[in-house]
Amino acid sequence: MTDRTGATGPGDDERHQDGMAVRREVLGDAHVDRAVAGTTPFTAEFQDLITRYAWGEVWTRPGLDRRSRSMITLTALVAGGHWDELAMHVRAAVRNGLSVEEIKEVLLQTAIYCSVPSANRAFRIAQEVLSDEGLV
User: Fold this and answer.
1) Cα–Cα distance between 103 and 131 in angstroms, integer?
2) 107-120 average pLDDT score
3) What pLDDT is stored for residue 12 in this prediction?
4) CB 3.0–4.6 Å: which of 20, 53, 106, 136 could bond 130 by disulfide?
5) Domain interval for residue 82
6) Contact predicate 118/81, CB 8 Å
7) Is the domain of 39 the same as that of 78?
8) Whole-prediction pTM value?
């Protein structure tokens, strides 16, 4: 049986609450509010999964700081070609304290290990996001 958050087992509600707090800190209230408002009965369990596991389990672990997690996430998104998510996580990286220079260095690294074409697209996306934020 699930509760109002879609949680199904012991501790799931707490992970959901912890995950939502981190999700808001990293992505910002406006983004999370849009995602929550756009949740439908069809997508509710997926939103709960993201909140509990990505944000409530992984992003809350003590082994890496959020800056490091942001660098890893940017790299993984470039490697996978997840361009919409990349834009969101460039914003998150700034919120997590990465400088424009550090974001540039992460993307340069991806050119070698993920591909030059992927890095080219990532630079275009990051440029647009950072310009929108008034950072470049």
Assistant:
1) 13
2) 98
3) 84
4) 136
5) 66-132
6) yes
7) no
8) 0.87
